[in-house]
């Protein structure tokens, strides 16, 4: 196995059907350290819900290889949920790929009129994921119950455009 330098170029783009085998690999292997794949039981329902113009499945690609994935699902009017944030283990030394996916998801969400993006995490991983989510620009919102699962909800405010990246 080889390790990619963190400044190696990659692009973020909408997923295509041809990406599915690599995306499936990432969903299995690309969980960020300390995170929990709580969506597994709901995966088919989440996949079936993708379809409106306000929703998008994004991938990060380097040299023809999918190295990151993220789905934007419209949960209710004006609110999108992010699912399957995954990064290839060789690219997890920093959050560069995850941040790029989040930026692309936020840009898409703003373009289609969503006002907030939310991410959920099981309560038992709070200490691990809170720091990651804060680095990605999310803030803790509340705890809630979703289908027998106690989760923490984090959100990214889309009301204002972000400051340009240096």
Automatic annotation (TrEMBL):
Its EC number is 2.3.-.-. SUPFAM superfamilies: Acyl-CoA N-acyltransferases (Nat) (SSF55729). One of its GO terms (molecular function) is acyltransferase activity. It is an enzyme of class 2 (transferase). InterPro entries: Acyl_CoA_acyltransferase, Bact_Acetyltransf, GNAT_dom. Signal peptide: none annotated. Keywords: Acyltransferase, Transferase. It comes from the Bacteria. Residues 10-164 form the N-acetyltransferase domain. It holds the Pfam family Acetyltransf_10. This is GNAT family N-acetyltransferase. It comes from Natronomicrosphaera hydrolytica.
């Amino acid at each position: 196995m080889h390790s990619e330098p963190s400044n190696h170029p990659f692009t973020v783009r909408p997923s295509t059907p041809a990406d599915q085998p690599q995306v499936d690999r990432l969903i299995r292997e690309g969980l960020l350290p300390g995170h929990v794949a709580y969506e597994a039981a709901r995966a088919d329902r989440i996949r079936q819900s993708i379809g409106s113009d306000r929703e998008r499945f994004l991938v990060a690609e380097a040299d023809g290889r999918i190295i990151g994935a993220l789905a934007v699902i419209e949960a209710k009017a004006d609110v999108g949920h992010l699912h399957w944030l995954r990064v290839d283990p060789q690219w997890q030394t920093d959050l560069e790929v995850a941040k790029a996916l989040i930026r692309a998801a936020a840009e898409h969400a703003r373009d289609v009129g969503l006002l907030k993006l939310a991410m959920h995490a099981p309560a038992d991983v709070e200490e691990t994921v809170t720091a990651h989510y804060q680095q990605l620009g999310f803030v803790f919102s509340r705890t809630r119950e979703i289908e027998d699962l106690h989760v923490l909800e984090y959100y990214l405010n889309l009301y204002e455009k972000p400051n340009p990246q240096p």
